[in-house]
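Troubleshooting log. The previous structure file for this entry was overwritten by mistake, so regenerating from the original sequence record. Sequence copied from the archived sheet and checked twice against the printout by T.R.
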Amino acid sequence: MSHTLQPLGAPVVRREGRDKVTGAARYSAERNLPGCLYAWPVPATVPRGRVTAIGTAEAMALPGVRAVLTHENAPRTREADDPILAVLQNDRVPHRGWQIALVVADTLEGARAGAEALDITYERAPHDVVLTADHPGLYTPETANGGYPAVRERGDFERAFAAAPVRIDATYTLGALHNHPMEPHASTAHWSPEGHLTLYDSGQGATKVRDSLATVFGLRPDQVTVVSEHVGGGFGSKGTPRPQAVLAAMAALHTGRPVELAMPRRHMAAVVGHRAPTVQRVRLGAEADGTLTSVAHEIITHTSTVKEFVEQAAVPARVMYGSAHSRTVHRVTALDVPSPSWMRAPGEAPGMYALESALDELASALGIDPVELRLRNDPADEPDSGKPFSSRGLAACLREGSERFGWHGRDLRPAIRREGALLLGTGVASATYPVLMSASHASAHAAADGSYRIAVNATDIGTGARTVLAQIAASALETPVENVSVDIGNSDLPDAPLAGGSSGTGSWGWSVHKAAADLARRLGERTGALPDEGVTVTADTDSETAAESPYARHAFGAHFAEVAVDSRTGEVRVRRMLGVFAAGRILNSRTARSQFIGGMTMGLGMALTESSSMDPVFGDFTESDLASYHVPACADAVGIEAHWIDEEDPHLNPMGSKGIGEIGIVGAAAAIGNAVRHATGVRFRTLPLTPDRLLPHLP
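Regenerated output below.
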């Protein structure tokens, strides 16, 4: 049957694809508003202190420079819901890169020249930017990111661990990582004579940006319109408003002209969030047959002095494997560093690297196949909450992946396979990500000509949201998908949550399905032709998403990797990767496969190339552009395959879908690290696995 008649699951081509490849899609810094000015932000060049003076005379004398905003003359704002938005409000410098001025000019080049002409003096203060395992400022917060309790204990871990016949006690360290979306963070702001603010923003959620700007500028939400029609990636860094949105609106208010501000990439490391470094101690106690008796995952991380953000890296250990005795703890210290934030599966990505590496170490100590060890410890109920899983396809993913990858018959012994100077190895790791849902609103309209239009303030960050939402609506309306148009990316549309936490499609789609199904019922009850204005139905999922589920809801997966390690250079090449996932009903096979492979490629980068190192003297991240922060290139991402199992789960949403945007990265780095250990016989516990780290340990 035609894809258009059976839309859910079909590989429908992305609707905006042609616009993007032909340049017709317009991003937030491509609005070309009449009379638009251009802004260049000025970052602090000391790691801590305060600004004592900003000389602006030379900058203002340059041709085309219209204004220099500082803490002395910038518009005053209300208390923000996020402290990082309180820019140009005082002379404090909490970290290097904090924005202390904004130059506005007729051209981008003029604004940049004006920024370079400023004469800035500081009063410096001592700074502390280095995370250590014994840092005297470490404390235990109440919660970690996502509202998870920072500490969870079950049973008597210390007693059970001491009594276990086989024990693993290992510490894994990950440095900071940065989001580097292709489109930098950018905003174009315009105020109407009546005081209405319109902001074109590269954000992952226009509703949230609207509400935050309304708070900052003392406006009603209906006095702000935020447009995020096309967004060139975000990976969490655009999940909440960033300072460029406030700065652009400030500059437009000050000058009375539209203002465009695109963040210079070298500035982004300090102001748009990062994955905080972690020191993770994992202890596993097991019986001789591999049954886990005790699990502890204790992490140390940093936050900023501006606000508290604690990467919830120990949370996956509460979900994955059964044991009667468990301890999971998060500790944090506030340093003079930029504020960390969400990045690509926060918590799960770093946490599962450590947990799955430790499980591989346990398998080696026991002489048990790593796949078999995971299967032996696959619980029926979620260990932390005791709730039954709505569905748990981990075992099916491991078995399917083993068959597809050719895992059976693998020699457990390390450093055995060679091709000349190349050491070959294979590794496996599990993946998980929670099913998250937020309240969403949508409308469905039936036109007199027989077409349909869906409206919901969803955001397409490159994942194909428009296409999948059209498929969901078409399925509920029992109409060809070509008959449905979708409006998204504008805060004047029905409110919807951000694109983040792998929750977008499930949340938006639920409200779209509800509105479309209600519309279909009403149309079925009608007789005669539709009125000229058509029929519109609105729906929300406030009550549905507010109700606590009696089930533990998670997606699962299994990663397999084969690597070749060059014993002469220390270079690691991933020859092939396979991911098999259990993520409910797959709504579009084409876009889903792309998301899985994209996530796995990010995991490859996490394992082998990506690193943000902190300079202890200057107090900033040294890898601040794409020349120094190395993301995988096409030549690195070869032989990557993604598959999924058919999973029926009636306890999720009307589509039966789970989020897929982030689970692809979870566990991928561990599978590669485990493969490197199998190839070399050496366990490396710090990422990335760069040649300088490997070479001293290779034969």
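The two ends are 58 Å apart (CA to CA). Archived copy saved in two places this time.
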